[in-house]
Structures are given as structure tokens and as C-alpha cells.
Amino acid sequence: MEVPCVRVAREAGEATRTTLADADLIDDDYEIAVEDGWLYIPVTDPDPVQAVLEDGEIVPRTVDERDTQTTPADLLAFEPSYERLGRAALIDEDDSERAREIADAILESDLPVGTVLNKASKVKGETRVRDWELLAGEDTEVVHREYGCEFLLDLAEVYFSPRLATERHRVAEQVETGEHAFDMFAGVGPFAIPFANRGAECVGVDINDDAIDYLRENARRNGVEDRVTAINDDVRDVATDYEDWADHIVMNLPHSADEFLEAAVTLAGDDCVLHYYDIQHEDDPFGPGERAIRAAAEPEYDVTVETRHTVRSYAPHELNVCLDVRLER
Question: Domain 2-62, what architecture?
Fold first, then answer.
């Protein structure tokens, strides 16, 4: 079957394979092919490969299907639900026996996983962290890679969602070298680090001091510490220090971002794009956010909604959405 493959010289094959594996981009359903001194490594999605491999050439190639690897479902009588975050698997099971059964199957499968965590509470408090039950592994700290960036984080101390990787990449591609980008709820840096990688100067603010420590470490890990300023504070108390500064503002606090719009308007420069996240009923998912932004920004700014984007379904009849809104003074 013809699938997208990274073509690389044989002598560079192992280094390339390792880089792609670390980014979870290798399509394990197919074999790596070798021909005329070239390796052809099947990949799941060509787009993020370009962010991971500067010189990666992607070509269509007919390759053999791989012998089926053992999955957790092969070892169970059902298809378990789990998320991957680095070398950790995240499950959500109320039944302790079922949780243990799933954890054992994940570890016995061919998945490259050494840690299994079970959600032990809902997201709570202003730092949006949750409790975890450690079913396998040493601790709750993981290394996650997406679109060429590496993030160290402790799930018990900070909020992080691997499901938003594609959305973060969508926004990052709008940021250009030399621009000023401000993340009002920065966490460990999943927006700020890609922005800085694209050459922007970034400020990330978070009320969680552990998240800010990880943001600083992740800026160092990704070689962008000179372009990232990390601040542990309530962004409403910081905004006046960066008045009229921002070309892009990220407001990824979907349950209560509207409470911070006055601060966002303070931060906005003469021509600024606001990336505003919201959770609303499917009957009118974008209206409440747009009205709140207009109430805060007009008449000082002309307000233009450039993108109305549904990120994902959040709950029955509720959508997680993003409004990309241009503010022009």
C-alpha cells in the first residue's frame, strides 16, 4: 500500500527514526523500507514532520504492512479507552479492578509506555489540576513532544491537554518572526514555546508557580529562553506593565476568559489578534464570546472576527470553540 514516508540516507536513518519515534509520528502499521542506500520511514501525518525534521523529504511509497503488534485490546475482552502523553498512558476508570486490568494490559502490550495513570478527580481549583492514581511507573512527571517542541511537566502539579496539539499548531502558524505574543494563562508553555520557535518575543503568565517553573525549563529545553518571559502572577495585575504591547494574545481559559477581557484590551497593541477560547451551548457557540469581546474592546478598537473555529465537543450539546478576533485601534 502507498503511504507517506520520510526518505533519508541510510547513514542518517537511525537518528531520523529516533526523532520521529520521539514525536510519535512513525506509522507502526507499516515496515521501514530500504532501497539504493535510502530508508523510507512511514509516517502518520506529513504536516508535523516538517516541524520535527528540517531536511525531511516526504515521498509516497509502497511499503509492506507490519505484522500486527500486540495492543491492549488483544489482551483484554474489550477495547480500553486511554490517552498517550509521552511514555505515559492516561485512563479514566472508577472501578479499581478494571483500572488495574487495563494498566497491566497496556504494560504487556507493544505500546512504548512505562507509566500508567488513572484519573482520580476532576480538574479543580484555579490552577485546574487533578488528582491521579499511579498504577505503574515512578511518578507523574512526563516528557511530551508535539510539532517539534518538547515539554516536561508534572500532571499532578499543572494542567495539560494533549488533545489540543492540533489547535495549538493552528494558532502558532499565525505568529510571525519579530511579533509580540502574550499568553495570559500560559501553563508549561504549549503556546508560548512554539511562538518563540517561530521567532516571536513571548510573555507567559500563570498563577500556578509550578507551571511557571516548567515554562522556564521548557524554554531552556527548546532553546528559546532568550525570547520567553515567564511571570508567576494574576495576569490582571501584570497587564499594565505590557500595555499596548501585544500583536497576539492567547486566552485559553474557556470557562471564564470573559472575566479577563479588560486586561486583554490593555495588552493589545494597535493591531492585535485575540485567540479567545470559550465553552458554550451548541445552539450559539460563538455569540456569547463575540458579544463579550465587543463590549470590552469597542469603541476603542474596531473588532473583526476572522475565524470562528470549533475545537472539539466538550460535553453533550456543549462545544469548545475559538474566536480569532482582530482588534484595530
Answer: 2-Layer Sandwich (3.30)
